[in-house]
Amino acid sequence: MSDLSREQCVKPQKGMPPLSGNEVDNLLPLAEGWLVIDSEEVPKLQKTFRFKRYKDALDFVVAVGWAADEQDHHPKITIEYGKVTVEWWTHVINGLHRNDFIMAAKTDEIYRSREDTKPRIS
Ligand SMILES: C[C@H](O)[C@H](O)[C@H]1CNC2=NC(N)=NC(=O)C2=N1
Protein backbone atom coordinates (compact mmCIF):
# COMPACT_ATOMS: atom_id res chain seq x y z
CA MET A 1 0.00 0.00 0.00
CA SER A 2 1.28 3.46 -0.87
CA ASP A 3 1.62 5.92 2.03
CA LEU A 4 -0.11 8.43 -0.19
CA SER A 5 -3.41 6.80 0.69
CA ARG A 6 -2.93 7.97 4.30
CA GLU A 7 -2.39 11.61 3.32
CA GLN A 8 -5.09 14.27 3.40
CA CYS A 9 -5.79 16.59 0.49
CA VAL A 10 -4.94 20.26 0.93
CA LYS A 11 -6.88 23.13 -0.59
CA PRO A 12 -5.11 24.05 -3.84
CA GLN A 13 -4.74 27.78 -4.43
CA LYS A 14 -5.99 29.26 -7.69
CA GLY A 15 -3.01 30.41 -9.74
CA MET A 16 -0.53 27.92 -8.30
CA PRO A 17 1.31 25.91 -10.97
CA PRO A 18 0.28 22.30 -11.57
CA LEU A 19 2.89 19.58 -10.94
CA SER A 20 5.76 19.72 -13.43
CA GLY A 21 6.48 16.80 -15.75
CA ASN A 22 9.33 15.82 -13.45
CA GLU A 23 7.17 15.86 -10.33
CA VAL A 24 4.55 13.76 -12.10
CA ASP A 25 7.25 11.27 -13.21
CA ASN A 26 8.39 10.95 -9.58
CA LEU A 27 4.89 10.30 -8.23
CA LEU A 28 3.64 8.02 -11.02
CA PRO A 29 5.48 4.87 -9.80
CA LEU A 30 3.43 5.18 -6.56
CA ALA A 31 0.22 5.09 -8.59
CA GLU A 32 0.28 1.59 -10.02
CA GLY A 33 -1.83 1.16 -13.14
CA TRP A 34 -2.78 4.82 -13.36
CA LEU A 35 -2.20 6.51 -16.71
CA VAL A 36 -1.62 10.17 -17.36
CA ILE A 37 -4.01 11.06 -20.15
CA ASP A 38 -4.54 14.38 -21.89
CA SER A 39 -8.18 15.17 -22.16
CA GLU A 40 -9.37 18.58 -23.30
CA GLU A 41 -5.73 19.66 -23.01
CA VAL A 42 -5.66 18.92 -19.29
CA PRO A 43 -3.50 16.09 -17.92
CA LYS A 44 -5.52 13.67 -15.81
CA LEU A 45 -4.87 10.44 -13.92
CA GLN A 46 -7.06 7.65 -15.25
CA LYS A 47 -7.63 4.02 -14.26
CA THR A 48 -10.30 1.45 -15.06
CA PHE A 49 -11.47 -0.99 -12.36
CA ARG A 50 -13.28 -4.25 -13.19
CA PHE A 51 -16.23 -5.78 -11.32
CA LYS A 52 -18.24 -8.99 -11.45
CA ARG A 53 -21.64 -7.34 -11.07
CA TYR A 54 -23.10 -3.94 -11.91
CA LYS A 55 -24.14 -3.43 -8.28
CA ASP A 56 -20.51 -4.00 -7.16
CA ALA A 57 -19.42 -1.29 -9.58
CA LEU A 58 -22.16 0.96 -8.24
CA ASP A 59 -21.10 0.40 -4.61
CA PHE A 60 -17.51 1.23 -5.58
CA VAL A 61 -18.64 4.47 -7.25
CA VAL A 62 -20.52 5.46 -4.10
CA ALA A 63 -17.54 4.66 -1.84
CA VAL A 64 -15.16 6.66 -4.05
CA GLY A 65 -17.70 9.48 -4.12
CA TRP A 66 -17.88 9.59 -0.31
CA ALA A 67 -14.09 9.57 0.00
CA ALA A 68 -13.93 12.37 -2.57
CA ASP A 69 -16.44 14.52 -0.75
CA GLU A 70 -14.69 13.92 2.56
CA GLN A 71 -11.49 15.31 1.00
CA ASP A 72 -13.33 18.02 -1.01
CA HIS A 73 -11.62 16.70 -4.13
CA HIS A 74 -13.89 15.25 -6.78
CA PRO A 75 -13.27 12.91 -9.73
CA LYS A 76 -14.97 12.16 -12.99
CA ILE A 77 -16.41 8.66 -12.69
CA THR A 78 -17.81 6.65 -15.59
CA ILE A 79 -19.70 3.48 -14.79
CA GLU A 80 -20.40 0.77 -17.33
CA TYR A 81 -21.38 -2.88 -17.03
CA GLY A 82 -18.48 -4.56 -15.24
CA LYS A 83 -16.19 -1.56 -15.12
CA VAL A 84 -15.66 1.87 -13.62
CA THR A 85 -13.24 4.47 -14.98
CA VAL A 86 -11.99 7.08 -12.53
CA GLU A 87 -10.23 10.30 -13.55
CA TRP A 88 -8.50 12.66 -11.15
CA TRP A 89 -7.26 16.16 -11.88
CA THR A 90 -7.44 19.51 -10.12
CA HIS A 91 -9.95 21.85 -11.73
CA VAL A 92 -8.70 25.11 -10.19
CA ILE A 93 -5.20 24.66 -11.63
CA ASN A 94 -6.21 22.83 -14.82
CA GLY A 95 -3.73 20.07 -14.16
CA LEU A 96 -2.31 17.61 -11.68
CA HIS A 97 -1.66 18.29 -7.99
CA ARG A 98 -0.40 15.97 -5.27
CA ASN A 99 -4.09 15.72 -4.22
CA ASP A 100 -4.78 13.71 -7.37
CA PHE A 101 -2.14 11.15 -6.46
CA ILE A 102 -3.49 10.99 -2.90
CA MET A 103 -6.99 10.33 -4.23
CA ALA A 104 -5.69 7.78 -6.75
CA ALA A 105 -4.09 5.90 -3.82
CA LYS A 106 -7.31 6.12 -1.78
CA THR A 107 -9.26 4.83 -4.81
CA ASP A 108 -6.89 1.83 -5.06
CA GLU A 109 -7.38 1.17 -1.34
CA ILE A 110 -11.15 1.15 -1.73
CA TYR A 111 -10.90 -1.27 -4.67
CA ARG A 112 -8.45 -3.51 -2.81
CA SER A 113 -10.79 -3.80 0.17
CA ARG A 114 -13.62 -5.20 -1.99
CA GLU A 115 -12.41 -8.75 -2.40
CA ASP A 116 -15.32 -10.74 -3.81
CA THR A 117 -16.54 -8.05 -6.16
CA LYS A 118 -13.80 -8.57 -8.69
CA PRO A 119 -13.72 -10.80 -11.73
CA ARG A 120 -10.98 -13.42 -11.75
CA ILE A 121 -8.87 -11.22 -13.98
CA SER A 122 -9.20 -7.58 -13.04
C1 LIG B 1 -14.75 25.02 -3.21
C2 LIG B 1 -14.12 23.69 -3.34
O1 LIG B 1 -13.10 23.51 -2.40
C3 LIG B 1 -13.47 23.51 -4.66
O2 LIG B 1 -14.05 24.18 -5.70
C4 LIG B 1 -13.05 22.11 -4.99
C5 LIG B 1 -14.10 21.06 -5.01
N1 LIG B 1 -13.60 19.83 -5.58
C6 LIG B 1 -12.59 19.85 -6.47
N2 LIG B 1 -12.22 18.72 -7.06
C7 LIG B 1 -11.24 18.71 -7.96
N3 LIG B 1 -10.90 17.56 -8.52
N4 LIG B 1 -10.57 19.84 -8.27
C8 LIG B 1 -10.86 21.02 -7.73
O3 LIG B 1 -10.23 22.02 -8.07
C9 LIG B 1 -11.90 21.06 -6.76
N5 LIG B 1 -12.24 22.15 -6.14
Automatic annotation (TrEMBL):
Pfam families: Pterin_4a (PF01329)
GO molecular function, one term: 4-alpha-hydroxytetrahydrobiopterin dehydratase activity
GO terms classed as biological process: tetrahydrobiopterin biosynthetic process
Superkingdom as given in the UniProt entry: Bacteria
Record's keyword terms, sorted: Lyase
Name of the featured protein: Putative pterin-4-alpha-carbinolamine dehydratase
InterPro entries: PCD_sf, Pterin-4-alpha-carb_dehyd, Pterin_deHydtase
Chain spans, region Disordered: 1-22
This enzyme's EC code(s): 4.2.1.96
